[in-house]
Amino acid sequence: MDNFSVLPEGCISQILSMTSPRDACRSSAISSGFDAAANSDPVWEKFLPSDYRQIISRSVSPVVFSTKKQLYFSLFDSPLLLDGGKLSFALDRESGKKCYTLPAREVAIAWKEDSRYWKWISLPESRFPEVAQLLFVCWLDIWGRINTAMLSTNITYAAYLIFKIADRCGLEYPVKSSVRFVKELEDGYQDDMSFTVYLTLETVRYLPREQNGRLPQMRRDGRMEIELGEFYDDKGDEGEVEMRLREVRVGKSRLIVEGIEVRPKDTA
Q: What would the DSSP string read from start to end of 35-88?
């Protein structure tokens, strides 16, 4: 430890920039020299996406920060609305990888512009101006697309439907979901809606012991989410990914769709 303490701050910063945000924060307790390096802009610049300046320039509201560390933490505590509210951007708390959320307005939903089936409402807790509230449909089909060039590379991403739901809404039944590269679908791949998921925890009461399926989880922000599937972003050149959820057999109502979030797999 004494050998490290005699290193110039710039050298310590270079070492810490090759670790992780968690490691940098922990190292600040080692010594005053480490504390200065661990909080320096060169370290946290490395943890931010290489195109972070271009991303924050698209923010609906001004992004104010005094240090790169402050910017990093603000980007997972307070997601940015981009492109006039058509997209939400955040950083993953642990890894600093990019996370995006497509709002309901930018997600394809069957019949969403027909006021007999859906209506648009505002929720004070939502980051988006509007969310989609289901009145009644039998054909529930929700899908969105995102280009892998927008995402961090060499990481497994998962897509999640973000929603709220009421009891006795007709969604106790299994629903199908899939996540596919669009080029696979265009090449004639038959999308079999490969995952069985459920949108309400009430489902547990009715499930046969032998039937498996993903159950929704409660988020820290009070909403529910269900994983639709995952994909690996290798070099960011795989093109678009389609994320889909569908159920067409029974009548359904009282579902509120906020959007579809894409974030690194296995993070809270």
A: HHHHTSHHHHHHHS-TTHHHHHTTBSS----SSHHHHHHHHHHSPEEEGGGTEE
Look at residue 179 and give its three-state secondary structure: strand
Buried b (16+ CB within 10 A) or exposed e, 61-96: eebeeeebbebbbbbeeebbbbeeeebbbbbbbebb
Structure letter (DSSP) for residue 104: G
Q: Which residues contact 57 (CB under 8 A, 6 or more apart)?
A: none
Could you read off the pLDDT of 74-119 as tens digits, one per residue?
A: 998 899 999 999 999 999 988 889 999 999 999 999 999 999 999 9
pTM over 0.85: yes
**Spatial separation of the C-alpha atoms in residues 64 and 59, rounded to whole Å:** 11
**Rounded distance between C-alpha atoms, residue 258 and residue 98, angstroms:** 19
Over range 42-71, report the average pLDDT: 93
Q: How many CB atoms lie within 10 A of CB 258?
A: 27
Are 131 and 260 contacting, i.e. CB atoms less than 8 angstroms apart? Answer: no
